Amino acid sequence: SIAFAGAVQAADYPSRPISLVVPFAAGGPTDVVARTLGVEMGRVLGQPIVVENKLGVGGTVAANYVSNAKPDGYTFFIHHNGMATATALYSNLKYDPLKSFEYIGEVVDVPMTVLGSKDFPPNNMQEFIEYAKKNGDKINLANAGPGAVSQLCGSLLQQALGVKFTTIPYQGTAPAMSALLGKQVDVLCDQTTQTIPQIAAKGVKFYGVTTLNRIQKLPDAPTLDEQGLKGFEVKVWHGIYAPKGTPADALAKFNGALKTALKSPAFTEKMAALGAEIVSEERQTPESLQKWVKSEIEKWTPILKAEGMSVN
Ligand code: MLT
């Protein structure tokens, strides 16, 4: 019978490798979380999790790809704030973040940092503010396109300073970081999951963190808020999704594996070293993620529309 076939399938699941789609370049902040998590979840599920980087258009190419993927329990998706901001930024999205996906749960929260190239003149945030006001569009800001948190953070920074930089988009902040290290661009706002090693290696200038409070991993690093940009805050959250219609048993197994992986020492230690914070157990649930995406859409849509940040 069909019910029996379904039960056999559920017991066998997963019987082959699972794809985890990452919307930005390999080696970048989202990719690092996905690959570290994938190894641990693969162990729990008994099948490898294969990371697939689907690049382009600020993460929307990947979201669209996943919304159209076969809902068979073998495709999942990790995405950040861009899941909620893209609707305000793009008028022609072919997916709906509230209707085209199943929700698994949240993963980590990640602070951002504002960096300059070694050739960029300002040595601290006070100098950055003065320099930005004088030089405006002579300053090149790298980001990963509208829908990327590097773009969100960079836009809020320009707005706070009342300046307009020249924007140089990449398909993730891994290539944007290479450009910063190569001094081809001046400024990058990026997640600590990629920037902490670069800050430690002193390959970049570092102006501050984007959370309201200082972070444990960089206790001497001042916030932007305490350096004159009152109330400046960007915090990145990461969630996991599946195509709409994915079988409930696959969703439940994947969620169980997520919860186990989030407790594993390999994952927690690596995330702590990179300044990322594992979300509370309550947030590791589909219901919580769905509610959160909805609230983030409601929060950011008016802000992004008022700022004229829409791209089409
Ligand atoms: C990445 O993984 O490349 C970043 O998360 C892109 C971004 O800035 O949103």
From TrEMBL:
Key word Signal present: yes
Keyword NAD tagged: no
Keyword terms, alphabetized: Signal
A Pfam family per the record: TctC
Family stated for the protein in its record: Belongs to the UPF0065 (bug) family.
UniProt-recorded name of the protein: ABC transporter substrate-binding protein
Annotated source species: Pollutimonas subterranea
Lineage: Bacteria, Pseudomonadati, Pseudomonadota, Betaproteobacteria, Burkholderiales
